[in-house]
Amino acid sequence: MAARAGLKAVASIGVRKSVPRVPSQKTINMATQPKPPRGPFDVHITFLGTASAQPSSTRIHSSLALRLGADIWLFDCGEATQSRLQQSTLKMGKIEKIFITHTHGDHIFGVVPLLAGILNGAGGAADGADEPRKAVDPYNPVIEIYGPLGTRAYVRSCLKYTHTFFSHAYVVHELRLPRDPPTGDYTQLPRNQAEAPFGQNIMQVGGVWENIFQDNAVSVSAGPILHSVPCVGYVVTEAPLPGKMDPAKYIPHLKRTNTPMKVMSELQQGQSVELSDGTILHGPQRRRGRKIAILGDTHNPSGIEKLALDVDLLIHEATNAHLPGIDEGTKLDDTYESVEARTKSRGHSTPQMAGAFAKRIRAKQLILNHFSARYAGNDDVDPEAKVLMDAIAGLAAGEYNKEVLCARDLMSVAVAVPPEEI
């Protein structure tokens, strides 16, 4: 695993059961639907792009992939995301969802090229030939996109003016702020043939967007975070997991009553089983699943604080840092206070701000992301870059009081199942 010290955990092995898509006019919250039992699955995060506004030779624009078992969800999709995916071990065909934090170009310019790569959007018909992709079924979307107001209009306009057609459908759900229009698409352009007509406009309730997606395995909620434009952070929460099971507590009872051993699977899921002699066996109590907070650009993430409490992993931006004696670009008249003030004025955070927020929400682990082009992303092979990135991590650790990891492109980390509480 390409990672600095920390986050050396190995996730549990398993397969996630995906809930089939139902192409109908429905709410995103599926909490009322039955949740079949399922086992734990691997959770990995791959950082595809870790740059801020300007990419560099070692960092591309923002994008990261969250792998849940066999499924992949992207969070932001900056320029060159598709190229980075091709350099990784991830399969583009496994991408199910794309979550956009805000519509600045360095976070969204890669969406349409990626969709074209996944949904067969290359080329076109010439000289009056028929374009079969005009007959795509829009009621069976392959990819869901979530983002703030303007996400749907952006994708629609790009497809319109680049004359792009898809062989498969997509759908866009927008997270609307109280000041945003509750209905409409925020554009006069008609839907592309491949855009599903049942994209939701999801309004806040209590200042946040809870359970914008939920199935039997995970749920996703979002909260507003302050930047220079409307921006959101996302919290991915795994459903409760089966508790640790001691077979010695159950097998003698099963043998005594000639009960088939297959009921062990029911007990493992926390269910109760009544034996032929009236004895009732109770499975182990279920334990909490993993919880991950992925923030977009921000100088104040307090709007997502309650949703993000006690996360196992917080991914937080750290665009600028004051590194006197380490960063040759440090201005002589700069101080920690002046750099923080300037960074905040542009809607961003310093490592210290990220560390303080991580401590406030009791995050178990913190990874810094979204770095200025001044900070090279090859610290795994360049000693000078490592000194600089270690210093940035140290600034955050000084506030967080725990070890901090700095992300670099194509770095992957596993998120472990939390230990059982005693």
From TrEMBL:
GO terms for molecular function: 3'-tRNA processing endoribonuclease activity; metal ion binding. InterPro entries: RibonucZ/Hydroxyglut_hydro, RNase_Z/BN. Transmembrane segments: none annotated. The keyword tRNA processing applies. Pfam families: Anti-Pycsar_Apyc1. Keywords: Endonuclease, Hydrolase, Metal-binding, Nuclease, tRNA processing, Zinc. SUPFAM superfamilies: Metallo-hydrolase/oxidoreductase (SSF56281). It comes from the Eukaryota. Its cofactor is Zn(2+). One of its GO terms (cellular component) is nucleus. Homodimer. HAMAP family: RNase_Z_BN. This is Metallo-hydrolase oxidoreductase.
